[in-house]
């Protein structure tokens, strides 16, 4: 809580091309609930360097992501949209929280195990303590609510454990956050393998719709989407490919699976895939246009970055100073 307002914090990494899954599963959700909270939406670039990045590329993608937050409908006058690396409190609090986190806890993190397996040549300490930095992000702003995907729930759990542990020693310093998992169906799967989540790091470009894909590409990818030989457009586990397409259609056309089954009763997969493609195009087109427009407004964006970075820093410092005092660091002489 800050004053009488509940605080919402979330963040995304600026690496790889964002997909329709990121938009429908996360960003669109943020836009829908942002008004109810005092919000912080961070471009978490400190997290990005746990795997090797090309510096120029990282900088470019970070700016693109920040621009996308705004293009998606988050008003930067009302929502604090900023770069994590512009607020040094994240790293400072992460250090302190590292001293309240056990190796055993971090060893259990499934994302660490996955990433360590994927980047066997660079299993660095940052990759290991990644969840502590994430805890710092959230606790720094006294967040009540954190929208995350299911894959991040374990990190939310450890954040709560760290906050409770710290509070048990020093009194009520941190708000203990709860996760906010968007409504069911928002999890978008790969178009080529509906058992896998749609991912920005998928090697097969046909598996994912990228937010910047042009209409022809989008329609073509849906045409090629893996389905089945049932020949019926029904929303059920036995038809994971079709189920995923229905989910996408529902999210884009604001319909329910039942309405969709009815709408396409007796019609073929080809026709349905084309309709899904069109629905996606009509959602992404305005987003892309707004993104292009904003990208040209350099001075405006720079102003937002400065102003919101300072706003984030103001709130971050409040918590950080309190934590520093609690653990016994000397007062600053002013
Ligand atoms: N780890 C998150 C992810 O990869 C990104 C993230 C970093 C985050 N810090 C956060 C999400 C704090 C929510 C809150 O998806």
TrEMBL record:
Entry annotated with the keyword Protein biosynthesis: yes
The EC number(s) this enzyme carries: 6.1.1.2
Any GO molecular function: ATP binding
Compartments, record wording: Cytoplasm
Gene Ontology biological process terms, A to Z: tryptophanyl-tRNA aminoacylation
InterPro entries: aa-tRNA-synth_Ic, Rossmann-like_a/b/a_fold, Trp-tRNA-ligase, Trp-tRNA-ligase_bac-type, Trp-tRNA_synthetase
GO CC annotations on file: cytosol
Class of the enzyme per the UniProt entry, highest EC level: ligase
Catalytic activity annotation: tRNA(Trp) + L-tryptophan + ATP = L-tryptophyl-tRNA(Trp) + AMP + diphosphate + H(+)
Main subcellular localisation: cytoplasm
Ranges spanned by the short sequence motif 'KMSKS' region, renumbered to the chain: 197-201
Motif extent ('HIGH' region): 14-22
Keyword Cytoplasm (UniProt): yes
Keywords: Aminoacyl-tRNA synthetase, ATP-binding, Cytoplasm, Ligase, Nucleotide-binding, Protein biosynthesis
Binding residues for ATP: 13-15, 21-22, 149-151, 188, 197-201
Binding site for L-tryptophan: 137
Family according to the record: Belongs to the class-I aminoacyl-tRNA synthetase family.
HAMAP family noted in UniProt: Trp_tRNA_synth_B
Subunit: Homodimer.
Job description of the protein: Catalyzes the attachment of tryptophan to tRNA(Trp).
NCBIfam families attached to this UniProt entry: trpS
Protein name: Tryptophan--tRNA ligase
UniProt source species: Candidatus Eisenbergiella merdigallinarum
Name of the gene encoding the protein in the UniProt record: trpS
